[in-house]
C-alpha cells in the first residue's frame, strides 16, 4: 500500500519516501525551470536585466562629485532650459512608447538567443565603468543602447532585437551636447542676416547692427534677435520629430537618412519665416502686437507648420506613387474580402477555425 501512495527518492546518501501528490507538485514546479519551452527562465532573465539597469542607471551614485550623483538624476538636471536641452526630459516617455509599438511587432518573431549579445553587454558595461572612473556621465549614456540591445540579443536573438534598435539609439537625444551655446550664437547671426537681407529686397528701410534690426523713418522700431530666437530649441525638437517620422514612414535606410538630414534646413527656413513675419507686422504698424502676442505664438503658427509641411512634401517627393500604390493595394484587398463575404466564402485559419 505504501508503494502506491509514496515515491522513493535518493537524496544526499539517504532514501526518502515522498507522498505522490507532493512529488507531482515538485516535478511540476521543477519542469517550469528545466522545460526548454518554459517562459519562466526567460522572464527571470528579463526581470534580472531590467532590475540591474534600473539600479545602476537610476539609483547607484556613480558620480559623487556632480550635482546629480546618479546617472538618471544627472541627466534630468543637465537637460534644462539654460543649455537649450529641455527636450531631453521627454526621452524616457518616448522610449517607453516606441518600445510598446516595437514589441507588438517583435512578439511574432522567432526567439533564438544569441551569444553575440554578450559583445553589446561588454561595450555598455565597459563604457559605464569608464564613465564612473572619469566622472563623465555622457559615456554611460553613449553605451546605454549597446547595453539594451546586447541584453535583448542575448535573451531573445537578432530577429526580435532588430525591432528595438531605433528606440535604443533614440536615447542619444538625451545626451546634453557641450558647447551648444556657440551654435546658438551662429544661428543668431544667420537668421539676423537672412531677415535683414530679405527686408532690404522688399524695400523696407532697415539697419542691421549685430543681432539688432532697426527700422528708420516715421514708423521706427527695433528688434533684438535674442538667443531664444536663434531657433536652436525648435531645431532640436524638429530633429527628434524628423527622426521618428523618418523611421516609421520610410522603408529603406537611405530614405530615412535623407529625410532626417532635411531637419536642419527645414528648421532654418521655419525660424526665418517666424522672425521675418514679426518684422513684417511691425513694418505695417503692428509693432506691439508683433513684439508680444504674435512673438509668443509664432512658433506654433509659423515654424512648425512650415517645418512639418516641408517634411510631408519631401516624403511625397521621394516616394512618388508609393503611398498611392499602398492605398490601392489596401483598397483592393478590402474589396476582395468584401466580395468573398458577400459570396459566403470564409477563409479558415491553419488551425481549422473560421
Structural notes for this entry:
The protein is mainly alpha-helical and 354 residues long. Helix content is 66%, strand content 7%. It has helices at residues 2-5, 20-34, 40-59, 71-78, 91-106, 117-134, 137-156, 158-161, 165-169, 180-201, 232-249, 253-261, 263-283, 287-318, 322-342; strands at 6-11, 14-19, 206-209, 212-215, 221-224. The strands form 2 sheets. Strands 3-4-5 form a 3-stranded antiparallel beta sheet, with helices on one face. A two-stranded antiparallel sheet has the order 1-2. A hairpin with a 5-residue loop joins strand 4 and strand 5 (221-224). The radius of gyration is 30 Å and the shape is elongated. The model is unreliable at 1-5, 29-35, 324-329 and 345-354 (pLDDT under 50).
In short:
This protein is 66% helix and 7% strand. It has helices at residues 2-5, 20-34, 40-59, 71-78, 91-106, 117-134, 137-156, 158-161, 165-169, 180-201, 232-249, 253-261, 263-283, 287-318, 322-342, and strands at 6-11, 14-19, 206-209, 212-215, 221-224. The longest helix has 32 residues, at 287-318.
Low-confidence stretches are 1-5, 29-35, 324-329, 345-354
The number of helices is: 15
Principal-axis shape: elongated
Percentage of β-strand residues: 5-15%
Radius of gyration equals: 30 Å
The main pleated sheet reads as: 3 strands, antiparallel
In spatial order, strands of the major sheet run 3-4-5
Number of strands: 5
Termini Cα gap: 51 Å
Give me the oligomer status: single chain
* Helicity level: 55-70%
Q: Average the pLDDT over all residues and give the rounded result.
A: 78
Helix and strand string, N-terminal first? HEEHHHHHHHHHEEEHHHHH
> Structural class, from secondary structure content?
mainly alpha
Amino acid at each position: 500500500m505504501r508503494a502506491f501512495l509514496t515515491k522513493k527518492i535518493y537524496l544526499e546518501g539517504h532514501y526518502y519516501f515522498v507522498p505522490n501528490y507532493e512529488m507531482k507538485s515538485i516535478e511540476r514546479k521543477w519542469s517550469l525551470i528545466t522545460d526548454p519551452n518554459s517562459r519562466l527562465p526567460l522572464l527571470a532573465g528579463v526581470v534580472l536585466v531590467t532590475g540591474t539597469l534600473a539600479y545602476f542607471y537610476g539609483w547607484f551614485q556613480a558620480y559623487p562629485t556632480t550635482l546629480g550623483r546618479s546617472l538618471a538624476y544627472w541627466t534630468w538636471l543637465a537637460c534644462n532650459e539654460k543649455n537649450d536641452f529641455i527636450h531631453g526630459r521627454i526621452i524616457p516617455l518616448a522610449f517607453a512608447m516606441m518600445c510598446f509599438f516595437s514589441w507588438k511587432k517583435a512578439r511574432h518573431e522567432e526567439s533564438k538567443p544569441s551569444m553575440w549579445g554578450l559583445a553589446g553587454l561588454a561595450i555598455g558595461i565597459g563604457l559605464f565603468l569608464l564613465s564612473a572612473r572619469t566622472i563623465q556621465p555622457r559615456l554611460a549614456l553613449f553605451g546605454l543602447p549597446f547595453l539594451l540591445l546586447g541584453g535583448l540579443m542575448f535573451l531573445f536573438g537578432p530577429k526580435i532585437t532588430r525591432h528595438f534598435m531605433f528606440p535604443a539609439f533614440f536615447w542619444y537625444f538625451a545626451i546634453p551636447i557641450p558647447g551648444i551655446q556657440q551654435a546658438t550664437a551662429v544661428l543668431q547671426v544667420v537668421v539676423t542676416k537672412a531677415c535683414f537681407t530679405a527686408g532690404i529686397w522688399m524695400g523696407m528701410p532697415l539697419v542691421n547692427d549685430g543681432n539688432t534690426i532697426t527700422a528708420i523713418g516715421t514708423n521706427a522700431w527695433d528688434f533684438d534677435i535674442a538667443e531664444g530666437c536663434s531657433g536652436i530649441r525648435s531645431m532640436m525638437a524638429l530633429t527628434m520629430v524628423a527622426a521618428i517620422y523618418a523611421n516609421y514612414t520610410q522603408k529603406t535606410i537611405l530614405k530615412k537618412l535623407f529625410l532626417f538630414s532635411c531637419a536642419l534646413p527645414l528648421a532654418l527656413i521655419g525660424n526665418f519665416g517666424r522672425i521675418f513675419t514679426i518684422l513684417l507686422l511691425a513694418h505695417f504698424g503692428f509693432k506691439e502686437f508683433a513684439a508680444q502676442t504674435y512673438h509668443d505664438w509664432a512658433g506654433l503658427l509659423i515654424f512648425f507648420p512650415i517645418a512639418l509641411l516641408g517634411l510631408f512634401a519631401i516624403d511625397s517627393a521621394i516616394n512618388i506613387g508609393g503611398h498611392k500604390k499602398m492605398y490601392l493595394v489596401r483598397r483592393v484587398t478590402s474589396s476582395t474580402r468584401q466580395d468573398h463575404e458577400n459570396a459566403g466564402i470564409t477563409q479558415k485559419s491553419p488551425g481549422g477555425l473560421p
